[in-house]
TrEMBL record:
Keywords per UniProt: Signal
Protein name: Metallophosphoesterase
Keyword match Cell division: no
Source organism per UniProt: Candidatus Seongchinamella marina
Domain Calcineurin-like phosphoesterase, first and last residues per copy: 149-384
InterPro entries per UniProt: Calcineurin-like_PHP, Metallo-depent_PP-like, PAPs-like, PAPs_N, Purple_acid_Pase-like_N
First and last residue of the signal peptide: none
Occurrences of domain Purple acid phosphatase N-terminal (ranges): 50-135
SUPFAM superfamilies: Metallo-dependent phosphatases (SSF56300), Purple acid phosphatase, N-terminal domain (SSF49363)
Signal listed as a keyword: yes
PROSITE patterns per record: PROKAR_LIPOPROTEIN (PS51257)
PANTHER family per the UniProt record, alphabetical: ACID PHOSPHATASE RELATED (PTHR22953), PURPLE ACID PHOSPHATASE (PTHR22953:SF153)
Length: 496
């Protein structure tokens, strides 16, 4: 009996103690979870390639492309990246792939829009300040700073044969930026003849990678094809990329032998498949992309335009691309200008290397006007020329009539685009059918004038080296011509 009593008491104590345990569960914290492992930094060594540049920068991806590295630096062929300049997480490590022409490409994906990233080439744990980029805002939104800045140079490739003016034009742009608000370029557009005299790999090295190295590490370069991209001393009339050939030069400094396709296409990785917005063109020769609320189209006025079938395909793609575009602003770039009286003459019907001028003017400018293009930029003529707000001008300069081709001011003269004569995207006639055409083939040299200079459709013409800066937000776009001293020699504003 005593034993049973003892068991009951023991059981009661046990129950009470269990109950105590239950009560304590409410007040005693759960055991702390295992701590997350601290992120590990990349552990590679930074390398300094002979050429390093960005391609196809979009809302969520970019291609980091380079060639060569310094002897003995031990860096690996990969990139690390992140939003903290001092910490490149190991999980960001992205291996590069080698192209046929000895370039390395790392495609960074999964990026956030409108965000600054830093990157290390070779996979170092921290990035150099010079190695950063900012992704495009998504969905046509404005960037966080409210403004997109676009820098445009044409025919800048003269450093390919040792001339200094392109570097001076760059300094002019940079000093203008410094005197303005310091905002760097978001986009860098090249208008063709980017590497004289034959567009070899070595000439690209001298004229692009050694002239703009800092800019190319932070800003995506979007080029178009000029006549000097096709070798043949700039006079090729071929429509076939495999006909690229060198004339009169033995050492081109590039891969040996130079591949039969254009070094332009070997060096650049362009969005044939709509990788950065826009409609897939299926070819790197022409393409489009979106940046914030700006749609940019790069046409091939050197090769595709010389073959009836290729030209028709490019024109139909352009119509389809522009039809699918709903962004606020549209800019088209191509090499051969429809209206010029500089070193080339858009009235010279006999000069066969300039036949693309006629095809652009007769077949493409009506499409620009009908499908909402706002601005068109060309080079080729080594001069700066900027048109009135123009439409329906497909003939020789003698057919230009301001009364029917130009936006007029209150005095019945072509509007300047300045002060109280700003252009509006939907014009006085109520149509979005006018375009401002600019020739900016003065990025590396200016040369001669043609008979009949200035072209009557141009509001402003000047034989001075320089470049173009476009500042654009949702309501207003201003395009300025900046000379090598950083002074603005011409500008116009368009509102919408
Ligand atoms: Fe040129
Ligand atoms: Fe040219």
């Amino acid at each position: 009996m005593k034993a049973i009593k003892m068991i009951v008491i023991f059981a009661a104590i046990l129950l009470a103690s269990c109950s105590d345990d239950n009560d304590r569960n409410d007040t005693i914290p759960e055991p702390a979870p295992e701590p997350e492992p601290a992120p590990v930094a990349c552990s590679g060594a930074e390398i300094n390639p002979e050429r390093l540049f960005l391609q196809q920068l979009g809302t969520d991806r970019v291609i980091i492309k380079w060639r060569g590295d310094l002897e003995g630096d031990g860096g690996a062929d990969n990139v690390c990246f992140g939003t903290d300049i001092d910490f490149m997480p190991e999980e960001s490590l992205t291996a590069a792939t080698e192209t046929e022409t000895g370039h390395l490409e790392a495609e960074l994906t999964g990026l956030s829009p409108d965000t600054t990233y830093y990157y290390s080439v070779g996979g170092a744990a921290s990035a150099a300040a010079s190695r950063q980029f900012r992704t495009s805002p998504a969905g046509g939104a404005l960037p966080a700073d409210g403004n997109t800045r676009i820098w445009i140079v044409g025919d800048s490739g003269v450093a390919g044969y040792g001339k200094p003016e392109a570097a001076m034009v760059k300094e002019g742009f940079l000093s203008w930026v410094e005197a303005d608000n310091g905002e760097p370029a978001d986009l860098f557009l090249m208008l063709g003849d980017n590497a004289y005299n034959q567009g070899t790999d070595l000439e690209h090295q001298r004229a692009i990678f050694e002239v703009y190295p800092e800019l190319l590490q932070t800003t995506s370069l979007w080029p178009t094809i000029g006549n000097h991209e096709m070798g043949s001393l700039g006079i090729s009339r071929s429509a076939d990329i495999s006909s690229y050939e060198l004339l009169g030069e033995e050492d081109n400094g590039g891969p040996d032998p130079e591949p039969s396709t254009m070094p332009y296409l070997n060096i650049f990785t362009l969005p044939a498949n709509g990788e950065a917005g826009g409609l897939a063109s299926g070819t790197e020769q022409y393409y489009s992309f979106d940046y914030a609320n700006v749609h940019v189209v790069s046409l091939d006025s050197q090769l595709s335009i010389r073959d009836d079938d290729q030209r028709a395909a490019m024109l139909q793609w352009l119509i389809d691309d522009l039809s699918a575009n709903s962004l606020d602003w549209t800019i088209v770039i191509f090499h051969h200008p429809p209206y010029t009286k500089g070193s080339h003459d858009s009235d010279d019907e006999l000069f066969d290397i300039d036949q693309p001028i006629f095809a652009i003017r007769e077949e493409f400018t009506p499409v620009f006007e009908d499908y909402g293009v706002d601005l068109a930029y060309s080079g080729h003529s080594h001069i700066y020329e900027r048109s009135v707000y123009l439409s329906d001008h497909t003939g020789l300069s003698s057919t230009y009539d301001p009364a029917t081709n130009a936006e007029l001011n209150d005095d019945g003269e072509p509007a300047s685009g300045q002060d109280d004569q700003q252009y509006t995207q939907v014009t006085r006639s109520g149509a979005d059918d006018k375009v401002v055409y600019t020739v900016a083939g003065n990025g590396g040299k200016v040369t001669t004038l043609s008979e009949g200079y200035p072209h009557p459709a141009h509001f402003f013409s000047d034989l001075t080296v320089g470049s173009v800066v476009i500042d654009v937000n949702d309501a207003q776009l201003t395009a300025s011509f900046i000379n090598a001293e950083g002074a603005v020699l011409d500008y116009f504003t368009m509102t919408r």
